[in-house]
Write a structure and sequence with these properties.
Blueprint: E1 21-23, E2 44-46, E3 68-70, E4 91-93, E5 115-117, E6 138-140, E7 162-164, E8 186-188, E9 208-210, E10 233-235, H1 246-249, E11 258-260, E12 281-283, E13 303-305, E14 320-321, E15 330-333, E16 346-352, E17 361-366, E18 375-376, E19 388-391, E20 396-402, H2 407-411
Parallel strand pairs: 1-2, 2-3, 3-4, 4-5, 5-6, 6-7, 7-8, 8-9, 9-10, 10-11, 11-12, 12-13
Antiparallel strand pairs: 14-15, 15-16, 16-20, 17-18, 17-19
Length: 412
């Protein structure tokens, strides 16, 4: 009954003991849900996009066998009944329920719940009873702009692997006791007002930490990150980072593979960056005051993105810079030895004007010096040559380091 015009599914109690699935997604005129008492074996309820839905019958919280509830974009819903006996519920999606200001109490056993989506809602707080969700592996609170804080009981979510707080601009601090969240692997706090990161140092299994646009972070808080030895990806973009000891404090992150420092205010990167022995991707885009790159970069480094680094003038010694010409590209060749051609990355610097799109035609040149006529950019998807020199008419600086075998990705 997707995209139906019904306003009410049925009135009063209706005995449908064999009913397992109800899908009313896109039913824009549905204003209330029925009494579910007569459908005790209901497994899946989909109300996604029921934009006029305002009332949910209390019996919803008593469906013992319900395992999947999707109410995404039910924007008129302001409250939900308590989940009293929802012991089988595994998936609860309330994304973009912009009218929802309060998340209900969880009064019963909800250890089966694995994924909870509250992104884009208007909730101001989470109930302390969230500690009952001990089986929860993913909690999405992205763009909950009215959320003021997280309850201390969130530290009881011992199975949580992913926590998304991006865009929760009113959150200023993380709860103190988070040592119980030993399974947490991904934490995003982009765009929050969080000032300290000290409470996350106990998250020993954290692999992905994103702090982009956290402009309130104090520099002292970065020291604790050095204890996150399993961290693989770290985003510190647009955090107002200045020259200092920030990266020196992070040199013990021996597992780090991706580091995003875009949009910061430092003039140079410290030599200690060479200690990131597993670093494969370094993002420096829009670091407009950056003038110097370290003399030594990690040998593992494959990709460097430095678009709009307009002050960058000095490069590592092992990189050979060829002068650019009016119509073309400056090529920075990072090859140390011809014998390593098949394994070593290349760095290309494209001059680019703001707003100008990538040219759809390129010329390429074989390593032996054979010139080839211009061809469409899409043709590069099929190229398998180990040494290819691209010539593009672009603008400000775009750095792209890529192993030639990755050109397929670059051209898409």
């Amino acid at each position: 009954m997707c995209f139906s015009h019904i306003k009410q599914l049925w009135r009063g109690k209706k005995g449908c003991s064999k009913l397992r699935f109800i899908n009313l997604s896109g039913s824009q005129y549905l204003m209330s849900t029925p009494d579910f008492t007569g459908v005790p074996d209901l497994l899946v309820l989909v109300l996604q996009g029921c934009t006029s839905l305002m009332e949910v019958h209390p019996s919803l919280g008593h469906l013992k066998k319900l395992c999947h509830l999707n109410m995404e974009y039910c924007k008129s819903i302001e409250s939900l009944p308590p989940f009293t006996t929802s012991e089988s519920l595994k998936y609860l999606k309330l994304s973009l329920c912009s009218g929802l200001k309060k998340f209900p109490e969880m009064e019963g056993n909800m250890k089966s719940l694995r994924e909870l989506y509250l992104d884009g809602t208007s909730i101001e707080e989470l109930p302390p009873s969230i500690e009952r969700l001990t089986g929860l592996t993913m909690l999405d609170l992205t763009d909950c702009k009215n959320l003021l804080h997280l309850p201390n009981t969130i530290g009881c979510l011992t199975s949580l692997k992913s926590l998304y707080l991006t865009g929760c601009s009113k959150i200023e601090e993380m709860p103190e006791n988070l040592n119980g969240m030993k399974c947490l692997e991904k934490l995003t706090i982009d765009g929050t007002s969080i000032r300290e990161l000290s409470s996350i140092v106990g998250m020993k299994n954290l692999k992905n930490l994103s702090c982009g646009r956290c402009k309130c972070l104090v520099s002292e808080s970065f020291k604790g990150l050095a204890l996150l030895s399993n961290l693989i990806e770290l985003d510190l973009s647009y955090c107002n980072l200045m020259d200092g000891a920030i990266l020196n404090d992070l040199s013990s992150l021996i597992s780090l593979e991706l580091l995003d420092l875009s949009g910061n205010c430092f003039v140079r990167l410290p030599e200690s960056i060479s200690q990131f022995s597993k670093l494969t991707t370094l993002i420096l885009s829009d670091c407009r005051q950056l003038q110097l790159l370290p003399k030594k970069l990690p040998l593992s480094l494959r990709d460097v993105f430095a678009q709009d680094c307009t002050s960058l003038t000095d490069y590592p010694n092992q990189i050979k810079v060829l002068n650019s010409w009016e119509s073309g590209v400056t090529i920075v060749n990072s090859l140390n030895s011809p014998a390593q051609v098949s394994e070593i990355s290349r760095m290309l610097i494209f001059p680019r004007n703001e707003g100008e799109s990538i040219a759809m035609r390129v010329t390429y040149e074989h390593a032996e010096g054979k010139q080839v006529d211009p061809l469409p950019l899409t043709t590069l998807q099929c190229l398998k040559e180990k040494e290819v020199v691209l010539s593009l008419s672009l603008s400000s600086f775009v750095f792209y380091v890529a192993v030639v075998r990755h050109y397929r990705t670059f051209c898409r």
